[in-house]
Specification:
It is built from no helices and 11 strands. The protein is mainly β and about 120 residues long.
Length: about 120
C-alpha cells in the first residue's frame, strides 16, 4: 500500500506561483509513475503531469506545458508540482496519484488540495 498526502494549495492571483507537494509513504516508489491530476467544479478529472520515479521522463498536459514543472525528491519520498503563471482556469482540486510498475492504472490517490486562482 502507498499513502499519499498533498499539501501546498491555496488562493492566489493570476500570474502568481504555487508549489504543491505529495508526500508518499508505505513502500519504496522505485518504478512507480507518479502523477498529478486536477478536477474543477462540474468537470471531469484531468491529467496534469507525471514523472517516472527512477528517471527523468516527464509528461505534461498541453494546457500546463511551459508553466508547470513536476519533480521528485528521492530522499524525502516526495513529488512536487511547481506551478507558475497561474491562470483562473487552473482553479481545481489537485490530486497526487501513484501507478505501480507494470500496471496501467493509478492505484493510489491522495485526498487532494484546493488551488484557487483569482483574476
Amino acid at each position: 500500500q502507498v499513502q499519499l498526502v498533498e499539501s501546498g494549495g491555496g488562493l492566489v492571483q493570476a500570474g502568481d506561483s504555487l508549489r504543491l507537494s505529495c508526500a508518499a509513504s508505505g513502500r519504496t516508489l522505485s518504478g512507480y509513475l507518479m502523477g498529478w491530476f486536477r478536477q474543477a467544479p462540474g468537470k471531469e478529472r484531468e491529467f496534469v503531469a507525471a514523472i517516472v520515479w527512477n528517471n527523468e521522463i516527464r509528461y505534461y498536459a498541453n494546457s500546463v506545458k511551459g508553466r508547470f514543472t513536476i519533480s521528485r525528491d528521492n530522499a524525502k519520498n516526495t513529488v512536487h508540482l511547481q506551478m507558475n503563471s497561474l491562470k483562473p482556469e487552473d482553479t481545481a482540486v489537485y490530486y497526487c496519484a501513484a501507478q505501480p510498475p507494470f500496471q496501467s492504472t493509478y492505484d493510489y490517490w491522495g485526498q487532494g488540495t484546493q488551488v484557487t486562482v483569482s483574476s
